[in-house]
Amino acid sequence: MIGDILRNVTKQQVLEQDVAVLLSGGVDSLSVAFAASDIGKTVHAYSFHLDTHVSYDFQKAKDVAEHFGWNFTAVSIPTNNLKQDFHRLVELDCRKKTHFECVYPFLYVYPQIKQKYVLSGWAADGYYGISKKAVLNYKHTQELFDEFRDNYFKPDMSAGYKWHKKVSDKHGKIFVTPYLTPEVKEFFYSKSWEQLNFPHQKHHVRAAFEQFNHIGNVKNHLNLQIDCGIVYLFESLIDDKEINFKNRTRIMDICRDWYLLNNTNTLENFFT
Fold this sequence. Notes:
Elements: H1 2-13, E1 18-22, H2 27-38, E2 42-50, H3 56-68, E3 71-77, H4 82-91, H5 97-103, H6 106-109, E4 117-119, H7 132-137, H8 142-152, H9 161-170, E5 174-176, H10 182-189, H11 193-197, H12 203-208, H13 224-228, H14 230-235, H15 251-262, H16 267-271
Parallel strand pairs: 1-2, 1-4, 2-3, 4-5
Helix pairs in contact: 1-2
């Protein structure tokens, strides 16, 4: 059922033959790529890695694209521009550490995308409640589980969707996110935490696309920032006195400082 929903949503929202897919090695992005392929779209896969190393997500995305004969564009993210890129993210009004880290690589990916429509599995993780916070505090009743998901999908949450879309809009793209549509939400909200995560994580989606049977093991949820190394790269900003002008010990506090500074009328008011 979820496969049909994803295929129908993709058909309704992607109105051209060629579609860019932001591809990782995870179930969510692979599922929307499979949905696009199933309805006859020409898939152009884009994946990134930091210039310091190649991540599992990138290598899996590359392998899958080669297996199915999709066009594949590799984007190497230069890490020596981090300070300037941080300021670019401030200008986008990024608010939280997650917003900064999740949007950062797409500053470089979008200039490479040639297609008008950009398809993504963005925010799908929010339906499963697989974070440590969700597992400890929200999985035990349907009411708690729905409360967690309601909070996750608030406009200023959803893994920084609003800020990602700013980058997409800036490059004249149409950002298509099937997992954020009412049809998909209705499917997932009809399931309990146990139904979505047993016998294994994301099994409904895995079973909905036979292509998963041909690409070997696909790992369970991986945090985008951790797998590709962004979270560790951003830690280096703690030692930059211009960026870390309040001598913080955590990146989350530095990000919040810059958000507040960017939304305060004057520097003097900010420090008072």
